[in-house]
TrEMBL record:
<keyword id="KW-0460">Magnesium</keyword>
<feature type="binding site">
    <location>
        <position position="73"/>
    </location>
    <ligand>
        <name>substrate</name>
    </ligand>
</feature>
<dbReference type="InterPro" id="IPR001980">
    <property type="entry name" value="PPAT"/>
</dbReference>
<comment type="function">
    <text>Reversibly transfers an adenylyl group from ATP to 4'-phosphopantetheine, yielding dephospho-CoA (dPCoA) and pyrophosphate.</text>
</comment>
<dbReference type="InterPro" id="IPR014729">
    <property type="entry name" value="Rossmann-like_a/b/a_fold"/>
</dbReference>
<dbReference type="GO" id="GO:0005524">
    <property type="term" value="F:ATP binding"/>
</dbReference>
<feature type="binding site">
    <location>
        <begin position="9"/>
        <end position="10"/>
    </location>
    <ligand>
        <name>ATP</name>
    </ligand>
</feature>
<protein>
    <recommendedName>
        <fullName>Phosphopantetheine adenylyltransferase</fullName>
        <ecNumber>2.7.7.3</ecNumber>
    </recommendedName>
</protein>
<comment type="subunit">
    <text>Homohexamer.</text>
</comment>
<keyword id="KW-0547">Nucleotide-binding</keyword>
<dbReference type="GO" id="GO:0004595">
    <property type="term" value="F:pantetheine-phosphate adenylyltransferase activity"/>
</dbReference>
<dbReference type="GO" id="GO:0015937">
    <property type="term" value="P:coenzyme A biosynthetic process"/>
</dbReference>
<feature type="domain" description="Cytidyltransferase-like">
    <location>
        <begin position="5"/>
        <end position="133"/>
    </location>
</feature>
<keyword id="KW-0548">Nucleotidyltransferase</keyword>
<feature type="site" description="Transition state stabilizer">
    <location>
        <position position="17"/>
    </location>
</feature>
<feature type="binding site">
    <location>
        <position position="17"/>
    </location>
    <ligand>
        <name>ATP</name>
    </ligand>
</feature>
<feature type="binding site">
    <location>
        <position position="41"/>
    </location>
    <ligand>
        <name>substrate</name>
    </ligand>
</feature>
C-alpha cells in the first residue's frame, strides 16, 4: 500500500490545504496529514485544536488520517511506513524552501521521497499566515477556510483581545 504524508503546521488549515489533501488522496491509497507541534513558530492554535480542526475539515475524505507529531518529518514518515512526503508549491518562492527541505531530507534518509503538488488556481494565493492576519483585523475569511475554522479564528482573536484588555 502506497502511503503519503502531508506535513505542516496547519495554523489554521485552509481551503488550499484541503485541495491538496483531496488531490493527494486521489493519488495515494493512504494520506496522513501530520500536524507539526512546531512551538518555534508560536502558533495561534495549540496542537490539539489544529488536529481537531483538520479532522473536522477533512472528515469527508475516507483515506485520510490526521495526527499531530513532533520531531523530524522523515523520522515520522519512516516510523509510520510512509515513503512519500507531499508538499504544496504556490509560487517560485515556495520552491526554493521546499527544494532545500527535500534535499536535506534525502541526506537524512533515502527511504522517503518528496512529491510536490501545485494548488488549484483559486487557492494558489491562500496561506495560513494571510488568513490569520485577515482574521486578526476582523476581516472576512469565509472564502479561504471551512466554516468551523472561520468560527475558531473569530473565537481565538476575540479571546486574545479580551486578554489584552
Amino acid at each position: 500500500m502506497t502511503g503519503a504524508m502531508y506535513p505542516g503546521t496547519f495554523d489554521p488549515i485552509t481551503n488550499g490545504h484541503y485541495d491538496l489533501v483531496r488531490r493527494a488522496a486521489d493519488i495515494f491509497e493512504r494520506v496522513v496529514v501530520a500536524i507539526a507541534a512546531n512551538p518555534g513558530k508560536a502558533p495561534l492554535f495549540p496542537l490539539e485544536d489544529r488536529v481537531a480542526l483538520a479532522k473536522e475539515v477533512l472528515a469527508d475524505i475516507s483515506n485520510v488520517e490526521v495526527t499531530g507529531y513532533a520531531g523530524l518529518t522523515v523520522d515520522f514518515a519512516r516510523q509510520h511506513g510512509l515513503r512519500v512526503v507531499v508538499r504544496g508549491l504556490r509560487a517560485v518562492s515556495d520552491f526554493e524552501f521546499e527544494f532545500q527541505l527535500a534535499t536535506m531530507s534525502r541526506h537524512l534518509t533515502d527511504k522517503v521521497d518528496y512529491v510536490f503538488l501545485t494548488p488549484t488556481e483559486q487557492f494558489n494565493f491562500i496561506s495560513s499566515t494571510l488568513v490569520r492576519e485577515i482574521a486578526s483585523l476582523g476581516g472576512n475569511v469565509r472564502k479561504f477556510v471551512h466554516p468551523s475554522v472561520e468560527a475558531a479564528l473569530k473565537q481565538a482573536w476575540e479571546k486574545r483581545k479580551a486578554q489584552k484588555s
